[in-house]
């Protein structure tokens, strides 16, 4: 699933609440000192370039997150997908979390096996590669063999599940500082992210959802899923068949033909379209390291992060695909109120500003649904999406609006579609797109 990472690996992870909170607090203090130094230099010299500040802070934050793993490293991975959310230095550093998190040393892996199975890895499998093939945020993957079958064994980092909630509470002040948002306005979104991350630490739940979603999507063309092995899995170890292929971003950067790009892109679109609009349960972690490409076959991996949509919310969320909303401001305002983006206490001026902003935003992000075939290779589309994000993020009047805006359930829907658009843009794929058949009724 990836190349073997050399070296002995990380020998220990801070596991007590006190040591983990101390590490995060120490990083927060260093970030604060860097800000003080920057503002001191600005006062003395008039310096306004924050790039060196962001670079120093991003490197410090990522170093700590990668050593702690678990929730902090997962947050870094999630934030790296949206290039508009963070300064570019953070995106560069946090993107490492998609592939190159420092792996654990083999003795720690053995410790997990003994706790879960009461046996060492080589007592469970015929062969087990001691060096991780892939290190990520919650766990790492090892190659193994059993009865002639090539296997991928995902081993969870020790202490991740037990420390996750306290980690996120400790990370929150640092995240609020980096993002420049108020805790009162984003508390519900943090809780939504926390719930999904807690689910990711339960490999027994991941096993069930992996089996369910891969079986439900098996009829879709140009997709292949691993086979899962409950007999060699536990709440902290997950075993599946080894799939050959290259990560999706490496395929996208290769010399693949347009037809090959279109085939893979269509498989990716169909995979998400079927899950979201038919199953209402979907793979919610669309970073390129979670997909392999073998020839023109797409292989989705890692169903640890999934999101279930309730029917009432699903209708409210995807009602925004209805073209009629763009031409009827009153209808759009009603839809925005239903999804808690427009609030009862908003002034008329604030309502008008939100409606106007959403009209232009929807016209852009729903553009692929206005065509039978959409060319994600058109550079102006994703450039416009990024520029819109930058403009909205810098809109001081919008940032000044109080209150939570939008349902917390929208967090992972928005994440999936932004990630999907980004991957398809990187593939430069042309895909067939269809509105859900209930839209407009």
Describe this structure in words.
With 441 residues, the chain is of the alpha+beta class. Among the domains are: 17-98 and 162-182, no CATH class; 246-441, no CATH class. It has 18 helices and 12 strands. The chain has helices spanning 17-45, 51-68, 70-81, 88-94, 106-117, 121-124, 160-179, 183-200, 203-216, 248-252, 258-279, 311-318, 324-327, 329-338, 348-365, 379-393, 396-399, 410-427; strands spanning 127-128, 134-135, 139-146, 149-156, 237-241, 246-247, 281-283, 291-294, 297-300, 306-308, 373-375, 430-432. The strands form 4 sheets. Strands 1, 2, 3, 4 and 5 form a 5-stranded antiparallel β-sheet that branches. A 3-stranded antiparallel β-sheet has the order 6-8-9. Strands 7-10 form a two-stranded antiparallel ribbon. β8 (291-294) and β9 (297-300) form a beta hairpin. The longest helix is centred in the N-terminal third of the chain and has 29 residues, at 17-45. It is globular.
Write the layout of secondary structure elements.
Elements: H1 17-45, H2 51-68, H3 70-81, H4 88-94, H5 106-117, H6 121-124, E1 127-128, E2 134-135, E3 139-146, E4 149-156, H7 160-179, H8 183-200, H9 203-216, E5 237-241, E6 246-247, H10 248-252, H11 258-279, E7 281-283, E8 291-294, E9 297-300, E10 306-308, H12 311-318, H13 324-327, H14 329-338, H15 348-365, E11 373-375, H16 379-393, H17 396-399, H18 410-427, E12 430-432
Helix pairs in contact: 1-2, 1-7, 2-3, 2-4, 3-4, 7-8, 11-18, 14-15, 15-16
């Amino acid at each position: 699933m990836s190349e073997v990472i050399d070296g002995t690996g990380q020998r220990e992870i801070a596991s007590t609440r006190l040591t983990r909170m101390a590490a995060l607090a120490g990083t927060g203090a260093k970030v604060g000192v860097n800000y003080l130094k920057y503002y001191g230099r600005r006062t003395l010299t008039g310096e306004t370039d924050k790039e060196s500040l962001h670079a120093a802070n991003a490197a410090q934050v990522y170093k700590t997150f990668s050593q702690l793993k678990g929730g902090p490293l997962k947050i870094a991975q999630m934030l790296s997908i949206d290039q508009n959310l963070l300064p570019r230095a953070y995106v560069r550093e946090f993107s490492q979390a998609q592939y190159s998190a420092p792996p654990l040393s083999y003795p720690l892996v053995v410790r997990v096996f003994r706790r879960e199975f009461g046996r060492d890895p080589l007592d469970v499998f015929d062969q087990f590669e001691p060096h991780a093939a892939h290190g990520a945020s919650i766990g790492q993957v090892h190659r193994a063999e059993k009865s002639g079958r090539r296997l991928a064994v995902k081993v969870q980092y020790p202490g991740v599940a037990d420390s996750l909630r306290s980690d996120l509470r400790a990370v929150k002040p640092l995240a609020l500082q980096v993002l420049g948002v108020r805790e009162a306005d984003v508390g519900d979104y943090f809780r939504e992210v926390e719930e999904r991350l807690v689910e990711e630490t339960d490999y027994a739940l991941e096993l069930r959802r992996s089996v369910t979603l891969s079986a439900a999507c098996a009829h879709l063309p140009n997709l292949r899923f691993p086979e899962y092995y409950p007999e060699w899995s536990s709440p902290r170890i997950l075993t599946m068949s080894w799939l050959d292929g290259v990560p999706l971003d490496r395929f996208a950067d290769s010399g693949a033909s347009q037809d090959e790009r279109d085939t893979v892109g269509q498989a990716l679109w169909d995979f998400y379209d079927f899950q979201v609009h038919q199953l209402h349960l979907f793979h919610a972690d669309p970073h390129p390291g979670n997909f392999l490409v073998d020839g023109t076959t797409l292989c989705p991996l890692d169903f640890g992060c999934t999101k279930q949509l309730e029917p009432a919310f699903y209708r409210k969320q995807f009602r925004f695909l209805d073209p009629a909303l763009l031409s009827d401001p009153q209808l759009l305002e009603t839809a925005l109120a239903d999804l808690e983006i427009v609030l009862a206490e908003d002034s008329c001026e604030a309502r008008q500003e939100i409606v106007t902003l959403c009209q232009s935003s929807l016209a852009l992000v729903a553009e692929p649904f206005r065509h039978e075939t959409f060319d994600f290779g058109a550079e102006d589309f994703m450039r416009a999406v990024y520029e819109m994000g930058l403009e909205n993020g810098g809109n001081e009047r919008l940032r000044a609006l109080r209150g939570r805006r939008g349902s917390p359930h929208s967090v992972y829907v928005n994440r999936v579609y932004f990630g999907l658009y980004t991957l398809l843009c990187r593939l430069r794929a042309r895909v067939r797109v269809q509105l859900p058949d209930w839209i407009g009724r």
